[in-house]
Design a protein that fits this description.
- Keywords: Membrane, Transmembrane, Transmembrane helix.
- This is Endolytic transglycosylase MltG.
- By secondary structure, the chain is mainly α.
- The chain has two domains: 56 residues, no CATH class; 65 residues, Dna Ligase, domain 1.
- The protein is 52% helix and 8% strand.
- A two-stranded antiparallel ribbon has the order 1-2.
- Helix 4 packs antiparallel against helix 5.
- The N and C termini lie far apart (107 Å).
- The relative contact order is 0.08.
Length: 153
């Protein structure tokens, strides 16, 4: 065993020297010093693309050609023309108003055609004293029963 003593000393010194060299060499090189040639920030990439007459945009952004945009615009416009515009009318029922006064307002707003029909239906349903105060919005297409249901809920 003593004959191999110098071998073990040399082997140990070699391992220590190698580890020290690796330690000192890697500590001087940091990740900041390693720069990739093709790595750009988004601003640099956009500037470079503008120089080359290209544009950079996020992948989730939808882009249309002029023809596609015109076709979509035409489709939306035709849908709006086909959609029937419903006129809405609004009024306020104040505290102390009775069904006759409400009927006059509804007639003035052209939501009902006759006050007598309104009053008769209110009386038949026993709702002529159950008119609730509040602000109401009605569409022109609502019928008499729907109007009565809204103002007496």
């Amino acid at each position: 065993m003593l004959g191999h003593k110098f071998f073990y000393y040399g082997f140990g010194i070699g391992i220590i020297t190698t580890s020290l060299l690796l330690l000192f060499n890697t500590s001087f090189i940091s990740n900041k010093d390693i720069v990739k040639e093709n790595e750009f920030h988004i601003v640099e990439l956009q500037e470079k693309a503008n120089e080359l007459n290209y544009s950079v945009y996020p992948s989730n952004e939808v882009r249309f050609t002029e023809e596609q945009f015109d076709a979509k615009l035409e489709e939306i416009m035709s849908d709006n023309i086909q959609t029937k515009i419903v006129e809405q009318k609004a009024f306020l029922i104040q505290d102390g108003m009775n069904s006759t006064q409400v009927g006059r307002i509804l007639l003035e707003l052209e939501l009902i055609s006759e006050i007598k029909e309104f009053e008769a239906l209110m009386t038949d349903l026993n709702l002529h004293r159950k008119v609730k105060t509040g602000y109401y919005v009605f569409e022109q297409t609502e019928d008499l029963k729907q109007i009565i249901d809204k103002i007496t809920e």
